[in-house]
Design goal:
Elements lengths: L2 H7 L17 H17 L16 E5 L5 H9 L5 E6 L15 E5 L13 E7 L7 H14 E17 L2 H16 L6 H12 L1 E12 L5 H17 L1 H6 L9 H17 L4 E11 L2
Parallel strand pairs: 1-2, 1-4, 2-3, 4-5
Antiparallel strand pairs: 5-7, 6-7
Helix pairs in contact: 2-7, 4-6, 5-9, 7-9
Bound molecules: S-adenosylmethionine.
């Protein structure tokens, strides 16, 4: 198959120069992110803001890698209308339509590695969720120092990421080994959860906390288990284009084989009681 044939066959992705992000930006992804947001919210007992923040009436809140802005929209419902909300992403395809965007909400295109210079010391809260398939180690460092820069003194950053450990059966072990190799070849950091607290401390954050929940995956865990399976397998299936463009990396020779392997992994989660991953939230304050 030629490179052109391969690229026409797969889902729409971002077109931001230099960005490493692997997942698609299309309607199916929008739906997956909406379900995933509800799942994560439920698992964390309905919480979307983790640090204990008193928002002044003119506070400004930033959501980086906002995607379809599910977090930002929920956050807005908790805050006074005078609070200004900003969502930034390398790709605008998932942004809510302009016609349903309230006056206090602003979306823009840009990368977390290079935030506008005029945003220095602006935000009371910066949220960033699920950039695990997007940033190299160096970019994580840049990202966290940029977030520190754009926070007000006493403002908080919160990061939500999924842990790289995946507990299930042999198909999952085989997949995770491949994923590690694939992401390493792409210069992405599957172990970002292990590095975020240290990167935060190095950037100057204080009062750093970590919270985590177990995400049970598979039919055996009831409706939430099925939601978790769909969210996870949907993300893994979304990487089919990049994996096949990289020649399958010894994991799948054809797109059909890739699909079959994903079916087998999802089936293993359904059948293996005790399959789980951990979801982690890290937050910390810009030193006053
Ligand atoms: C898995 S989605 C998560 C979306 C949203 N944060 C959520 O939790 O529903 C990751 C998002 O990060 C965006 N992204 C990837 N690399 C980025 C970068 N360097 N700067 C800003 N956004 C980025 C993608 O376009 C995508 O919308």
């Amino acid at each position: 198959m030629s490179v052109t044939e391969v690229s026409q066959k797969y889902r729409t992705t971002h077109s931001y120069p230099g960005a490493l992000y692997l997942l698609p930006s299309d309607e199916d992804e929008k739906e997956r992110l909406a379900h995933q947001h509800q799942l994560y919210k439920t698992l964390f007992g309905g919480r979307v803001i983790f640090p204990n923040i008193v928002f002044p009436p003119n506070a400004e809140v930033l959501d980086l890698g906002t995607g379809s802005a599910t977090w930002l929209v929920d956050c807005r419902s908790l805050l006074p209308e005078s609070v200004q909300l900003y969502g930034m992403d390398i790709e605008s395809k998932l942004f809510p339509a302009y016609s349903v965007t309230p006056a206090n909400t602003h979306y823009s295109i840009g990368s977390v590695t290079n935030l506008p210079s005029y945003w220095s010391s602006k935000f009371t809260l910066v949220n960033q969720r699920l950039l695990i398939l997007a940033l190299s180690k160096d970019e994580w460092r840049k990202d966290i120092s940029e977030i520190y820069r754009v926070l007000k003194d006493g403002g908080y950053a919160q990061f939500t990421e999924i842990d790289s450990n995946w507990i299930s059966g042999p198909k999952t072990v085989e997949y995770v080994k491949f994923l590690n190799d694939f992401l390493e070849a792409k210069n992405l950091d599957l172990q970002c959860c292990d590095h975020i607290p240290e990167l935060m401390a190095n950037a100057g954050f204080v009062d750093i906390h970590t919270e985590e929940v177990i995400v049970k995956i598979g039919k055996w865990a009831g409706q939430l288990g099925e939601e978790a399976r769909n969210a996870s397998i949907g993300a893994l299936r979304g990487m089919k284009g990049p994996v096949m463009k990289a020649g399958g990396m010894g994991f799948a020779r054809t797109p059909e084989e890739f699909d079959q392997k994903m079916d087998e992994v999802a089936d293993e989660w359904d059948r293996t009681e005790g399959s789980y991953r951990k979801l982690k939230v890290f937050y910390g304050m810009k030193c006053q």
